Amino acid sequence: FIKNNYWSFVRYFMFRNMALLIAFPVPYNRNFPVNSSQATNSMPSQPSKTLETFENPHPGRDYTIRIRVPEFTCLCPKTGQPDFAEMTFEYVADRLCVELKALKLYIWSFRDQGGFHEAVTNQILDDLVTAIEPRFMRLTADFNVRGGIYTTVVAEHRAADWIPAASVVLP
C-alpha cells in the first residue's frame, strides 16, 4: 500500500511514531533553558572582564609565553554580524602571568560586544598590560574575511626599561 498511496504512507508513519511517543514518552525537564539568556545563566561559568594573575615562576629570566585563541568572536559595530578571529598573545612576563581560564572568560566577554577590529585588539592589549605589567607583549588579531577583506591587527607594548636580549641564530 505504501507504493501506491503516498498519503496512506504518511498517515501510517505518523501513527507509528505517535504510538512510540505514547509508549516511550520523552521526560520533560522544567529546568531546561527556554531562551539564550536562561541558557547562559545556567552554565557553570560566565563571561567575565576580570583577568586573574599568578606569580611568574621565573622572574629573573626573559622567556616568551605564547597563547593562541582560535575562536575569538565579537560583533561588527555597523552591521551587528559576528566577526571571527584567531588571536595570538606573545609576552615576556615580569612579576605576573595571566591565568588561562580567566583569559578564556575575558575573551568570551567580547562575544556580544560590538567593536572595530582595531579598537577591540587595542582594548584587549591595554587590559592585559594593566593586569600583568609585562616586559613586552604583542597581540596579533587575525580576523576572518568580511566582504572580501581580511584584517590583521598587531599591537605591541614594551616596558620603558626593558631591553630585549640579542637574538640567537643557530646554524
Sheet with most strands: 4 strands, antiparallel
* Structural class category: alpha+beta
In what range is the share of β-strand residues?
Answer: 25-35%
How many helical elements?
4
Could you give the distance between the termini? 79 Å
Strand order of the largest sheet: 2-3-5-6
The pLDDT mean sits at 86
In which range does the helix fraction lie?
25-40%
Element pattern in H and E = HHEEEEHHEE
Question: What general form does the structure show?
Answer: elongated
Gyration radius (Cα, Å) is 25 Å
Give an overview in words.
This protein has helices at residues 6-23, 36-41, 100-108, 117-132, and strands spanning 53-55, 64-75, 82-92, 96-98, 136-146, 149-158. The protein is α+β, with helices and mostly antiparallel strands and 171 residues long. Strand 5 (136-146) and strand 6 form a beta hairpin. The protein contains 4 helices and 6 strands; from the N terminus they run ααββββααββ. Helix content is 29%, strand content 29%. The strands form 2 sheets. A 4-stranded antiparallel beta sheet has the order 2-3-5-6, covered by helices on one side. Strands 1-4 form a two-stranded antiparallel ribbon. The termini are far apart.
